Amino acid sequence: MRNVLFVLSGPSGVGKGTIAKKLIERNNIALSISCTTRLPRNGEIDGKDYFFISKRQFVDKIKKNGFLEYSEHFGNFYGTPKDFVENHLADKDVLLEIDVDGGLNVKKNFTDAILIMIVPPTLNDIKKRLESRNTESDENIKLRMERIDYELGKKSEYDYVIVNDDLSDAVSEIEKILKKEKAKKGE
Question: pTM (2 decimals)?
Fold first, then answer.
């Protein structure tokens, strides 16, 4: 079967990371590693968590059309390196776990990409998940909750929407989507 590039997006706390981990454990899928200009956090490893590069290197890569998508947040750049994705697509499916705007930009640059938005059963579920992490301040939780309406407002631009009310069901639904999309391509 032909390998596919697919994007998982959705609000913070919806379970994208957990879903991605399960998909990778159960399938021949590579998780794309983003480039960033921010400094590594304690325990982060270059080439595993991110490719940590300078702003100058990042801008040079932009000029050479080296990203499928990129953006700036809080003074740092983040982007999906095109060469990493293309090299891995030769051997396996590639998963991007990125924000909604990044997903839409990937689709512009890689029209075969499959966009899958993960949504919560209710907004209250998201708030509970963010609070239970014990990693976010009340202010950060408030900011993330304010962004949810914007993100969910983009779901009509995604190819598929999966409600994450049960992890096993969500993973199985995505696996069915991948199988269906591969079949569509005639493989």
Answer: 0.86
